[in-house]
Amino acid sequence: MIPFNKPFLTGKEAHYIYQAVNSGKISGNGVFTQKCQHWFEEHYGFRKALLTTSCTDALEMAAMLCDIKPGDEVIAPSYTFVSTVLAFVRQGAKIVFCDSCKDNPNIDPDKIEELITEHTRVIVPVHYAGVACDMDRIMDIASRHNLLVVEDAAQSIDSYYKERPLGSIGHLGCFSFHETKNIIAGEGGMLTINDDRFIRRSEIIWEKGTNRSEFFRGEVNKYGWVDTGSSFLPSEIISAFLWAQIENMDMIQTRRKEIWEFYHNNLADLSARGFFTMPDIPDYATNNAHMFYIVCRNLQERTALIAHLKENDVLAVFHYLSLHRSKYAVEHGISGYDLPNCDRFADCLVRLPLYYELTDEQADYICGLIRDFYSSRK
Predict the structure, then answer these.
(1) pLDDT tens-digit profile of 303-339?
(2) Which one, out of 52, 68, 147, 276, has a CA that is 20 to 30 A from the CA of 317?
């Protein structure tokens, strides 16, 4: 069976984990955590980067920093993972769902402004597949309405919008290093802070509502409870694993992009004949090869294609179900939206296997199965 995903190990993960354990400092905010954070700040220009135990944690920190209160409204796409909105729901926010673009699953900037009310506080664009949303338009809308922007960049490490790294444009950005991402830590995430107003408080929330980070830097002679927060920082074991991945990012990215291009080139003729569509990369965006997907013509065809691939030992998957059609949304009065583009991606999108160790021969086999499937269809 060709799996949908296979975590890639560089060979240095266990070595660095041994170093972390042997150092006697394996709780959070140690040497490897600081090395990772400094690398991200220097390499991508984030004003502040804080590693977290997951992207969900990073989003929860962002919701706290935005000072979300019951009754506040947050605009987000419906075609996304539940963590995007759950972080704000936990603070008491009402989620207002926005449709996807026609050509890609990202939030449609043409639909955002009509959703803004006097209660709106935050816009949460999700860069699906690591492909940038139209951030100039989103930031302009936010500026004119005095709103905050939290980039859900879970899939977007090493991807850019007009030469600006994703996660560096909004007031806050949230990344994932889950085992399905480009670089991984098993679980893991990162919050990026791009507005000076939030830097000091982000460290306090990160450290259980205390000013312990300032104490460790010698800026105060004792620390205590000064704000709300939780234990969001990861252990040194997670950070040590991530450091091995960071050191090999260029190699990982090069191979993933080769696989992405292989799929694109070998399936282009079927797409041109109208059997399905492939990822749309706008001129303002780069492609970090987080995933390769095709969008089938209908739900029945997608179901049959996934079954055909599985019968031939290839695991391909669909992705998100529309959040506005979820059981939770119905029960909590945030359903009833008419979001045709979102629903089309939920019903028709298929993700193909894409991971570092996928060979050209395996990718060619997968493309051949897709050709066989469509050979008898019109």
Answers:
(1) 999 999 999 999 999 989 999 999 999 999 888 899 9
(2) 52
Residue 228: how many other CB atoms lie within 10 Å: 11
- What the block records as the tokens of 333 is 């009065």
Between CA 6 and CA 16 the distance in angstroms is 21
pLDDT of 156 above 80:
yes
Following DSSP, what letter does each residue of 305-333 receive, concatenated? HHHHHHHTTB--B--PPPGGGSHHHHHTT
Structure tokens at 13: 């993960």
How far from chain centre, in Å, is Cα 233?
18
Work out the angle at residue 187's Cα, subtended by the Cα atoms of residues 292 and 101, and round it to the nearest 5 degrees: 35
Are 192 and 46 within 8 A, CB to CB? yes
Measured CA to CA, the distance from residue 322 to residue 319 in angstroms comes to 10
Cβ atoms 104, 128 nearer than 8 A: yes
190 contacts 206 by C-beta, under 8 angstroms: no
Report the distance separating Cα 350 and Cα 103, nearest Å. 15
Q: What is the DSSP letter of 112?
A: T
Enter the tokens of residue 162: 């007009």
What letter represents residue 370's amino acid?
Answer: I
Q: Note the pTM of the prediction, 2 decimals.
A: 0.96
Location of structure tokens 């026609």: 102
Query: Do the Cβ atoms of 181 and 155 come closer than 8 Å?
Result: yes
243 φ/ψ angles, rounded to the nearest 5 degrees: -60, -40
Backbone angles phi, psi at 73, to 5 degrees: -115, 140
pLDDT digits (tens, 9 = 90+) for 219-263: 777 788 988 999 999 999 999 999 999 999 999 999 999 999 999
pLDDT in tens, 54-79: 999 999 999 999 999 999 999 999 99
